[in-house]
Design a protein that fits this description.
The complex is a heterodimer of chains A (321) and B (570). Helices cover 64% and strands 1% of the residues of chain A. Chain A contains 16 helices and two strands. Chain A has a two-stranded antiparallel ribbon with strand order 1-2. By secondary structure, chain B is an alpha/beta fold. In chain B, a hairpin with a 7-residue loop joins β7 and β8. In chain B, α3 crosses α4 and α12 packs across α13. The longest helix of chain B is centred in the C-terminal third of the chain and has 66 residues. The chains are: A mainly alpha (321), B alpha/beta (570). Chains A and B meet through loops of A and loops of B.
Chain lengths: 321, 570
């Protein structure tokens, strides 16, 4: 778990660089909430505290929540999400190792359904707001003004394409809008790159296998690529999708969750591909700006079944069909 | 150069083998008492052939094999039988087993030993000799060797694999045996080769034992055999029979098949050695080489008599003061000996003195997070974490679906589990539960079958009795009739009448019996007739009467109850 946290650091560093250090406040807030909730639940369930608190799983959940929520979310949103993740999605299902859904993604889904407006307001990149003011916004000391927040690049593109039905091509939008960078969301490219770096490190260390991440990336890219080739004016290229929103975080840190994901090699691959495809479908055709959380949750439901049907042949049984 | 194959999974624990290879094999002194369990192999339990107080000689049969898969047990030295009683066994359960207690007389006097010329004997006789000599698999599985020395009738015997891999950490008994007694090992392999007639003989040794490889190669050359002595990569559990077969031949033996069905058979080097001793010297298996290592001052290999109590054996190594227990076998698959009285047996390849520093207590078990590390190292490519979930949930059907009986209990999964879950213990538990249930089910099935036989027999006996009674009654009636007839015809023509009347009367008796049966049946019918018409209101009774009247009118039913059939008089 500690290695997973370490692998998140490049992404976090890019995040801090792009959006300012307020994310560190959110990370701390989520971590503190998660540990407190974990401790309280362990006490209620009469489990040893130190051992479970030290396993790092609650912190990983907290970080994933902080990194998927808008950095200027009010403090209570992060706290609510984290509490829901730890108390309901984790401990009410039986604690570590028993949860059928990824707790962080449950938190994201619950909050985006409950507080859609707050969950889709992201700070404009490059907006110079003092750290103190950002913290003030988080803790409700300063008013939330629309000037400092807006939609994510994914959302912007989707809304523009839908609203102005066919008036703008993707290329035009990408060229003219401020939120877009070289090939994806401005600044987001770097954050996603950071996650990719961390993920590759995890793979190199043998913490995760290549199956689920590669499957996810392949599923997302193949569908995105096919549609992009079919109509480049209406559909963004795969690179845009891979480096926008939660795709890279999802590929390396969420579909690789061993507890709620698949465990057989083939199962992991299927899980990844299906999650990638679903994420794209929800993003582009569905009602939510980003689809990774829902895609992962839907696939969590299928994981046991996929595992059941992808049992590898055992020693001495391979030539049998 | 022979092409080697790989098996999936495996781990590389610290080998810890160097400690015990410095000194040559020592001969353990006679202990003050020997406790020889009668059951030391897989299969049947030999019955004791000696009595308390009897003097036995070294190598004397004290328990003969019962059944084909069973192996004989012998007195390890000369002395007096002090008791034949239950004694703690070398088993983690701490249960006792019937053992022969022998007090050595110090003379170590052999029985008359008769070598055989196995080349001149029928294979059957050679196998019988090995069975009588108590030769079993000394790698630890203690399967009676003679039972594995028959080639499949349909599959040609391709390879004979000899297992000198010795992959468990700490254990060096096979290593030392191969170094010091290579020639006898090779000669033993020759006996197996002659019986099985394989196309190739492959001797596999982990490459961390170059001296053993060299010794066996030299012996093979010296004896002019064409056996291939192969160094295999050091990777636990390369010494598992199925893993070694895989590495040397590329064949994978599933749990549902015997290796001979794939044209391959595997024996441990120590088994080959004892087979040679039995054939060429007429010596039954009364001792074995045991590694004594771990937390002791003098780690070493000892040739120790079977039945030596643990306390006297470990004294040879001078255990350090902080020793807190003794493991039998290696740290991966071994178990804690249940007591200092527990004896060394044919399966005892190693005794490791443990201490808190050597084997620190495991940190508490954490929940399984399905990380899959166990599946990565499982040499049988199972999904240990799935087996764990199902074992824990006592969902034993599912554990079998996930092939729990393919688990060789090598312990790789427990070794790598980051949550420190003793996975193998869960699997052993599940297996034993399944066996216990199977046994229970068999017992229940047998009881059911017995019950059904009993019911059937009771009914048959009843029927037979009734028939007998009817016959007796008929005979009685006939006799009476005959007497009456005789009385009636007292003065008259008494010559032919009885003879003519008797059959008539017998028929009448039969008729009477039938009539009586009919009557009984009618009474029963009446008794069983519904009685719910008794407490009806007058209105209801009128209604019924009206319906009955209508029925009678329609001719559906006869006017009244049929009159009871007239009983014919006997």
């Amino acid at each position: 778990m500690l290695q997973v946290l370490a692998a998140l650091l490049p992404g976090v560093a890019a995040y801090v660089w792009i959006f300012g250090p307020v994310i560190l406040v959110q990370l701390a807030l989520a971590t503190a909430t998660a540990l407190a909730a974990e401790a309280a639940m362990l006490k209620l369930r009469e489990k040893p505290q130190a051992m479970f608190l030290a396993d790092g799983s609650a912190v990983v959940t907290a970080w994933l929540i902080a990194l998927t929520f808008p950095p200027l979310s009010p403090w209570w949103l992060i706290v609510t999400g984290t509490l829901f993740a730890i108390v309901v999605a984790k401990h009410l299902y039986g604690g570590l190792g028993q949860n059928p859904f990824n707790p962080a993604m449950v938190a994201f889904a619950v909050c985006i359904v409950s507080f859609p407006a707050l969950m889709s307001q992201w700070p404009a990149v490059g907006l110079k707001v003092a750290f103190a003011d950002q913290v003030g916004v988080v803790f409700g000391l300063l008013p939330r003004v629309d000037a400092i927040s807006g939609a994510t690049p994914l959302d912007t593109l989707k809304t523009a394409l839908k609203l102005e039905d066919g008036q703008f091509s993707v290329a035009q939008l990408l060229a003219n809008q401020d939120v877009f960078g070289f090939f994806a969301g401005r600044g987001w490219e770097w954050v996603a790159g950071g996650y990719l770096l961390g993920g590759l490190w995890l793979w190199q260390r043998g913490i995760v296998t290549w199956h689920a991440p590669l499957g996810f990336i392949a599923g997302l890219s193949l569908l995105a690529g096919g549609l992009w080739l079919y109509n480049p004016a209406q559909f963004a290229n795969p690179l845009f999708h891979l480096f926008s929103g939660g795709a890279m975080l999802g590929a390396w840190f969420i579909v690789t969750d061993p507890v709620s994901g698949c465990t057989t090699p083939r199962g992991k691959l299927i899980f990844g591909v299906a999650a990638g495809v679903l994420a794209y479908v929800i993003r582009v055709f569905g009602g939510y700006p980003d689809g990774v959380a829902f895609a992962v949750l839907l696939m969590n439901l299928c994981a046991p079944l996929i595992d059941l049907y992808t049992q590898p042949a055992i020693f001495g049984m391979k030539d049998k069909s | 150069m022979l092409q080697l194959f790989k098996f999936k999974g495996g781990v590389k624990p610290q080998t810890n083998k160097t400690q015990s290879v410095a000194a040559p094999i020592g001969v353990a002194p006679l202990p003050s008492r020997l406790f020889v369990p009668l059951h030391q192999s897989i299969g049947g339990t030999p019955r004791p052939l000696v009595q308390t107080g009897e003097r036995v000689l070294k190598g004397q049969l004290i328990g003969a094999a019962d059944g084909w898969i069973s192996s004989a047990v012998h007195a390890p030295t000369s002395g007096t039988v002090r008791a034949i009683a239950e004694h703690v066994a070398a088993h983690p359960s701490g249960l006792t087993t019937l053992s022969v207690e022998i007090e050595p007389d110090g003379r170590d006097e052999w029985i008359a030993r008769t070598p055989i010329d196995h080349g001149a004997m029928a294979p059957e006789a050679v196998r019988e000799r090995l069975r009588e000599a108590g030769v079993v698999g000394l790698g630890g599985a203690v399967f009676p060797t003679h039972g594995k020395l028959t080639a499949s009738k349909t599959v040609p015997m391709e390879e004979l694999v000899i297992n000198g891999a010795e992959c468990e950490p700490y254990i060096t008994c096979d290593d030392l045996l191969m170094r010091e007694r290579a020639e006898e090992v090779i000669r033993g392999v020759g006996v197996f080769r002659d019986l099985l007639q394989p196309k190739r003989v492959l001797i596999g040794i982990e490459d961390n034992k170059p001296e053993a490889v060299a010794a066996l190669q030299a012996a093979v050359a010296r004896l002019g055999e064409d056996f291939a002595v192969v160094a295999v990569p050091t990777l636990y559990p390369a010494g598992g029979a199925k893993q070694l077969i895989r590495v040397l031949t590329g064949k994978e033996v599933p749990s549902t098949k015997r290796s001979t069905d794939l044209g391959v058979q595997c024996f441990n080097v120590a088994t080959a050695y004892t087979a040679w001793r039995a054939v060429a010297h007429g010596e039954p298996v009364v001792s074995r080489i045991v590694t004594l290592t771990g937390n002791v001052e003098r780690p070493r290999n000892w040739e120790a008599l079977l039945g030596t109590p643990l306390s006297e054996f470990v004294a040879l190594g001078a255990p350090k003061p902080d020793t807190d227990g003794y493991l039998m076998g290696g740290p991966m698959m071994g178990f804690a000996m249940p007591g200092m009285d527990a004896p060394l047996v044919k399966a005892t390849n190693c005794i490791i003195a443990s201490s808190p520093t050597l084997f620190p207590p495991k940190a508490p078990e954490m929940p399984c997070i399905r990380c899959g590390e166990c599946a990565k190292v499982c040499p049988h490519e199972l999904q240990p974490f799935e087996l764990y979930w199902f074992s824990r949930a006592k969902n034993f059907g599912k554990t079998q679906e996930y092939h729990i009986f393919d688990c060789i209990e090598c312990g790789c999964c427990s070794f790598v589990c980051p949550s420190r879950i003793p996975l193998v213990q869960y699997f052993r538990f599940a297996k034993s539960e399944i066996w216990a249930r199977e046994k229970e089910k068999n017992a229940a099935d047998q009881a059911k079958a017995r019950f059904e036989w009993k019911t059937e027999r009771d009914e048959r006996e009843k029927a037979e009795k009734a028939e007998k009674l009817a016959k007796a009654a008929a005979a009685q009636a006939a006799k009476k009739a005959a007497e009456a007839a005789a009385a009636a015809a007292a003065g008259a023509d008494a010559s032919a009448a009885p003879a003519a009347d008797a059959p008539v009367d017998a028929e009448a008796a039969k008729k009477a019996a039938i009539a009586a049966a009919l009557e009984r049946a009618r009474a029963q019918r009446e008794a069983a007739a519904p009685k719910n018409t008794e407490q009806l209101t007058p209105a209801q009774q009128r209604e019924i009467a009206a319906v009955d009247a209508l029925r009678r009118q329609a001719g559906i039913e006869p006017a009244a109850d049929p009159a009871p059939a007239e009983e014919p008089k006997p």
